[in-house]
Design a protein that fits this description.
Layout (H helix, E strand, L loop, with lengths): L1 H21 L3 E2 L19 E3 L4 E7 L3 E8 L2 H10 L1 E7 L6 E6 L9 H5 L6 H11 L4 E4 L19 E6 L5 E8 L1 H4 L5 H4 L4 E7 L5 H9 L19 E2 L10 H6 L4 E7 L7
Parallel strand pairs: 1-3
Antiparallel strand pairs: 2-3, 2-11, 3-4, 4-9, 5-6, 5-10, 6-7, 8-9, 10-12
Length: 274
């Protein structure tokens, strides 16, 4: 009986520790080049969120927060290309800072029924890649301490926010971002102090205009035509990589393209330099 109780207490303690560790980012020891490639991350993204279909990883060192998103599904790539995406950060350390990085759409033409059907086509990722590099998305930052401007992809710069977008040979889309910690906490931050409070992350994929809804509302004399999801934001969506990473193009997933989807998660920076 005593052995059983000790075992249960041991499991409870282990579960608590894992829960705390999962909330803290991994310390990044080597330099990461922000180039839209992920070879210097050395591992697949450990987290996957089912509603947004985003796989991602975040790490930090003494000077920067690093983040990369992997978008494998054709539908999700198309959604980001056509409607854009916003990455929001809210710090809990006073003074509270609310900041965001916005990816504007880089495919702006109206979508016809025929183009809608092309979303499930195997050639669409190549088309998205070509269109992105011909007319890259405008990416802006706001609410940060310094980089409240249109962001640049020219080269890594440890003093300002930088990003890059790329595709691999399997047509997965990658978005890499480096945010100097000074953008959140100013120049004189104390690493130990800023790691004590959580940072709230919210990634929102905007809704694509639904052509069927647009025609219906136009015929009925209503304006708009943007169909947005209701109550689609959800918390605790961070989970380990699993199946479900392949886009099958079924009707439910296609409907999700016309709804706003959000990923929410809280994390702590790692203050243990190694």
């Amino acid at each position: 009986m005593r052995t059983t109780i000790c075992f249960i207490l041991s499991v409870m303690l282990t579960t608590t520790l894992f829960s705390q560790i999962d909330n803290t980012l991994k310390w990044q020891t080597d330099s990461i080049k922000i180039d839209g490639k992920t070879t210097d991350w050395k591992t697949l993204p450990p987290f996957y969120e089912d509603k947004t279909k985003l796989a991602f990883d975040m790490r930090n060192d003494a000077g920067s927060l690093y983040m990369y998103l992997k978008v494998s599904e054709q539908q999700t790539q198309f959604k980001i290309a056509r409607a854009g995406m916003t990455i929001n950060f809210t710090t809990k350390l006073k003074p509270v800072k609310k900041a965001k990085i916005t990816f504007a759409p880089f495919m702006t033409q109206k979508m016809s029924e025929n183009k809608d059907k092309e979303v499930v086509g195997k050639k669409e990722p190549f088309s998205l890649k070509q269109k992105y590099f011909l007319t890259p998305a405008v990416v802006t930052a706001s609410g940060f301490t310094y980089s409240n401007i249109q962001l640049s992809t020219t080269k890594r710069n440890d003093s300002v926010i930088t990003y890059a977008v790329g595709w691999d040979t399997l047509n997965s889309m990658y978005i890499e971002i480096q945010i100097p910690l000074r953008e959140f906490f100013g120049d004189n931050y104390n690493l130990k102090q800023v790691t004590e409070k959580e940072i709230a992350l919210k990634i929102t994929e905007n809704a694509v205009e639904n052509p069927a809804m647009s025609r219906s509302e136009s015929d009925s004399g209503q304006g708009g035509g943007m169909m947005k999801g209701s109550g689609m934001d959800h918390g605790g969506g961070m989970g380990r990589n699993g199946s479900g990473m392949t886009y099958e193009g079924n009707s439910q997933e296609r409907t999700g393209m016309f709804e706003q989807q959000s990923l929410k998660q809280k994390f702590k920076l790692n203050g243990n330099a190694k």
